[in-house]
Amino acid sequence: MKSTKPFPEMKQATKGSRALESPESRRSWLRRLGLGAMLVAVAGQAYTLLRALVPNVLYEEPQRFKAGLPDQFPEGATFFEDRRVFVFREQKTFYAVSAVCTHLGCTVKMINLSQPKKVQIKGRLVEERREFHCPCHGSKYYGDGTNYAGPAPGPLAWYRLEVAPEDGQLVVDLSERVSQSFRLTV
Description:
By secondary structure, the protein is of the alpha+beta class. It contains one helix and eleven strands; from the N terminus they run H-E-E-E-E-E-E-E-E-E-E-E.
């Protein structure tokens, strides 16, 4: 026989008690709580991913370096392999040309020509005694760094040179490009 009386342990819900809360409001509150937790987790993962792209310590060499005293440079080119730059001396003038190919970043090799050749660069006739060749993909550059063959999209970079006031050494600034007409006279 079934009794229609409410269970003795159940209390009658009154208007101000918690027992009157509808299951619908609890569900919506739990949904909001779950959605908030998921958003916090996604934001935490995104922060971790982006933070991994920023190094804590920068291991790059300085962009400015002292190359040596001007008197120590021989006539012609001096190659700094670790910095991939050529420093040229022509009597009392100096200039620096990058050895990084503008195609894919290979190191170009300087070729001294057995006989000078006359070439037209930017509308003027120039006598070239050297060229730069990229061993990776065949790009070729005239002695001033102007590209003339291969897939290289542009000329080799020229960098600023200056004399350090404290000790008179040549300073190459790889962060500052200059035009191909730049010369430092010492």
